[in-house]
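Morning run. Coffee first, then this:
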Amino acid sequence: MDEEGKRRVVIVGGGTAGWMTAAALVHQLGPLVSVRLVESAEIGIVGVGEATFPHLRLFLRRLGIEEAAFMAATHATYKLGIVFNDFGALGEEYMHGFAGFGEPVAGVPFHHYWLRMHREAQGSAIGDYSIAVAAARARRFHPPCDDLGGEGAFSYAYQFDATRFAPFLRDFACGLGAERIEATVRHVARDAERGDVTALELADGSRVEGDLFIDCSGFRSLLLGETLGEDWESWSDWLPCDRAVAMPCTRPPGEIEPFTRAIGMSSGWRWRIPLQHRLGNGYVFSSAYLSEDAATAELAGVLEGTPLAEPRILKFRPGRRRRAWAHNVIGIGLASGFLEPMESTSIYLVQVAIDWLLELFPLGAVEEGDRTTFNALIDFEYARIRDFLILHYHATRRDDSPFWNRMRTMELPESLAERLALWRRSARVAHYGRGPFLEPSWVAVLLGQGIRPDAWDARAQLPDRARLEGAMAALRADVDRRVGSMPDHAAYLHDLIGGEALDG
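And here it is:
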């Protein structure tokens, strides 16, 4: 505790994870804590994760940050989902949108009825019954009304310049009392008996003492990994991609797509993220199948505009620390674990760790029960996202490269194998009450990549065929009507942030 009785929190590392954590702590806990963040200008920000998941909206809302101000500061655009090309097979496309499909009838999810009609060669693509998918295809956007329910319900996320997000949050957090210390950590001091971290010794000889330390030092994991020696659990057997080459380029004039695009490549996949001022591009690949030079050339060959920076190679290991909270150190972000950005979950994992930290925040001594609970919750999130990412690779019919042959034929984690078996025999998806990927997400990928179940809920056979066909036609017409009333995505951005900001 400091002289005012506040819990002393020290954050190591800035960037997105560090400043999200600092902003949340000073805003939510206020007078209960003092927050100091140590970062070095010599250490750059990874800064290529430009797409997010809808949960970030709640984070910004809790902090009282206005959406228009955030979007103007970070050159953001709206995101209704992710379009996947060449994953199930070359030439195929589908969208994982941030909305369900239709609405349940008599407790039976809509996709069971769709499967019945699809087997009978009736109805259209399942994405036609999702307002998020339909709006994205039409390049239209308007936030959902608060009272919009049923088939009209949808959510959205953001696509933004990650190098602008951390400074935006830094100004916000420091304005609420967080202290920024620009320095390099020379040594980490620990209690000889308990093993807890007691202070950071900086290059200028000063010390930063604390009660609770948050490791946001990125892949280095200075506190959790280097100092405490928390083991790394590798998931590279299931997720072999260990490199990415990033290369932003100018954005072609005209429409701005309200979605991220993931495109299958020879040895991985590439992202395409439209921002207000440029396109974010990157190729996630496995170095076991492709060299860095070859990956760079492959990416450069498909750019749609003029490159705005030299190619940047990122190296990573998919997996996580076995414990995210050890002693009095909590790892958040890359210091705790890494899962590739295919479904834009990096910032979500930062956010969920912050949420659980706030709920379990120790006002006194750190209790083992708090650590155990936190670690179990974080493990659950990582494992579920891991399985969802593996699904995208495994559910493929591609046989055009050694990489895709391996992904199609690899042995799956037991948890994912059980999910796939359940889907194949009954069209059911194991239910979760919270988190990023609920039933509609799994349905979107499973059907989008061509995994059709052998059967479905028997109750879907009960409605008269003509009646069901009419109901589905009315549903699609309603989706089209709602989408037709939305403005063009670029026009909505123009009205929100102003033409000069959008053009600049």
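Confidence is low (pLDDT under 50) at residues 147-151. Good start to the day.
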